[in-house]
Design brief:
Radius of gyration: 20 Å
Structural class: mainly alpha
Largest sheet: 2 strands, antiparallel
Strand order of the largest sheet: 1-2
Order of helices and strands: HEHHHHHHHE
Distance between the termini: 21 Å
């Protein structure tokens, strides 16, 4: 299976690997690694404090939005594997990659593979939508936060509807997390490498040119 993967990777250009070597190379820079774990912590805190600690819940949302804003910028100016052009692919490429995963012959990528890239975009969009709808709920229901001036005078029914939308978006985003973890496990097993460790120390198994 490794030979098939290596051949397939070689056909997809410099983002996929051709011949695996024993060398380890730095792929994930410190900011990408910090962002990954910090955003995960912010989402976890927001989830755990949803009904109990509104202040902490709110600040977790603000931190998540700030992190995402910084990541969007870093995707334009950061190192190669942090940049959006390096890993974001269209639906056709992503679906083809998922088909290869199911057939056990998915190519190995040094950066995010197409399915992982799609999950990154989905999670960023979901967390952003959750935080923004949360700000709307805070403004309409608690008359606080940056959106409060724009939501003055809304009805209780509207405030309730906003809360329902916020809860739906948050739950939909949380449903993506098990899929993300499953993808990490599958890729780690198929390519015999610890992707979680790679997001901790930044290194992955390299390639020989």
């Amino acid at each position: 299976m490794n030979n098939t993967n290596e051949h397939a990777a070689g056909q997809q250009g410099p983002r996929a690997t051709a011949t695996l070597s024993a060398d380890r190379v730095r792929i994930w820079d410190p900011f990408v690694r910090f962002f990954h774990w910090a955003l995960g912590a912010a989402v976890l805190i927001a989830f755990l404090t949803e009904d109990e600690l509104l202040g902490l819940h709110t600040w977790a949302g603000y931190i998540a939005l700030t992190l995402i804003g910084a990541r969007l910028l870093w995707g334009l100016i950061g190192p190669r594997h942090a940049r959006w052009w390096d890993f974001v692919r269209g639906p056709r490429v992503t679906l083809a990659y998922l088909g290869d995963v199911l057939r056990g012959r998915a190519a190995r990528y040094l950066g995010h593979n197409p399915a992982g890239a799609a999950m990154v975009i989905a999670l960023l969009a979901g967390v952003t939508a959750t935080a923004l709808t949360g700000m709307a709920v805070l403004g309409a229901g608690e008359f606080a936060g940056p959106l409060a001036p724009y939501l003055q005078g809304v009805s209780a029914a509207t405030a309730h509807d906003l809360a329902e939308v916020h809860e739906f978006v948050a739950n939909a985003t949380l449903c993506l997390i098990p899929l993300h973890l499953l993808g990490v496990v599958l890729a780690s097993l198929q390519h015999r490498e610890n992707l979680i460790r790679g997001m901790i120390d930044g290194y992955k198994r390299g390639v020989s040119q």
